[in-house]
Amino acid sequence: MRVWSSVVAALMAAMLQSAAWAAEYPARPIRMIVPYAPGGAADFFARILAERFTAAWGQQVVVDNRAGAGGNIGSDIVAKANPDGYTMLLGTSGSNAVNPGLYTKMPYEAKRDLALIAMVASTANILVVRTAHPAKSVQDIIRMAKSNPGKVTYGSAGVGSVLHLSGELLKTVVGVNIVHVPYKGTGPSMIDLLAGQIDMVFSNLPPAVPFVQEGRMRGLAITTAARAPALPNVPTMIESGVPNYDVASWFGVMVPAKTPSAIVEKINRDVQRILKTPKTQEQLKAQGADPMFKSAREANAFFHEEIAKWAKVIKVSGAKAE
């Protein structure tokens, strides 16, 4: 009986402590790590959240870009941070769901060390070339690749990103040899594309939309089964003659796995509140992104499911961390 009473007392104390943390949270500035360089979709979403959090919480939320190793460097910082809610990660399907199946050795254990506590958005991806490139369609790229195997290059946000796997999936489905050129984020890949250093880039939709609308890049194909409202004239991969091709990217807020539940719930509620505001929805829509609404528990269950899903895709495609 005494043992049982001790257990109950310990649980009650933990609950009261968690509630106390949430009541005073946040009491100091917060760091939101983006595991890629500035200029990509993860950076775009992080800066929207940071601005809204800062206004709502009265504490500065600072975006900290820590690129490298396909997102593993930034993710590892958060995985090993104090679980107090003051270090967050703008996690992505590539850096956090793909990497555990792609890298033979990870600096942290994804499901054990990190928790996805709030979804932010999902977005289609897009294959783009600079406007001066001779390819006008995906079929043009396929013909070029088959005529010059190993000569056509594609850039991505990094090894293990969903954008990397978008290229690997194209190679597998149509049987072409195109060369992956990894970058530390979409922004740097776009710079090299415009400079003519690479032939094409698989990009998340948000950073690509302005370039396509301004006529600086040509959108060849959207990676999802449906066209993107932000770029309605760009066909899908399926419409372009690549069967069964359907790839999207997601983004969400992650924290160290042992972060107190009361803080987790507070962050989740505030993210959902931000996503429901007309201003945020307008910003997401303009970039071809759709808000995602899940509870903290649903989000983390989804995260674990995504790890298993991408592990199977990686095994079939034969993709490897370079």
Runs with pLDDT <50, length 5+?
A: none
Number of domains: 2
**Helical coverage, percent range:** 40-55%
What kind of sheet is the major sheet? 10 strands, mixed
CATH class of the largest domain: Alpha Beta
Q: Can you describe this structure in just a few lines?
A:
The chain has 322 residues and is α/β, with parallel strands linked by helices. The chain has two domains: 2-123 and 249-317, Bordetella uptake gene, domain 1 (D-Maltodextrin-Binding Protein, domain 2, 3-Layer(aba) Sandwich), CATH 3.40.190.150; 124-222, 3-Layer(aba) Sandwich (D-Maltodextrin-Binding Protein, domain 2), CATH 3.40.190.10.
Descriptive account of the structure:
- The model has no long low-confidence stretch (mean pLDDT 92).
- The chain contains 12 helices and 10 strands.
- The termini are far apart.
- The radius of gyration is 21 Å and the shape is globular.
- The longest helix has 23 residues, at 2-24.
- Helix 4 (93-102) crosses helix 12.
- The chain has helices at 2-24, 41-57, 72-79, 93-102, 110-113, 138-147, 162-174, 186-194, 205-213, 261-275, 278-286, 296-317; strands at 30-34, 61-65, 87-92, 114-130, 153-156, 179-182, 200-204, 217-222, 248-256, 289-291.
- Strands 1, 2, 3, 4, 5, 6, 7, 8, 9 and 10 form a 10-stranded mixed sheet that branches.
- The chain is 46% helix and 20% strand.
- The chain has 2 domains: 2-123 and 249-317, Bordetella uptake gene, domain 1 (D-Maltodextrin-Binding Protein, domain 2); 124-222, Periplasmic binding protein-like II (D-Maltodextrin-Binding Protein, domain 2, 3-Layer(aba) Sandwich).
- Strand 5 (153-156), helix 7 and strand 6 form a beta-alpha-beta unit.
- It is an alpha/beta fold.
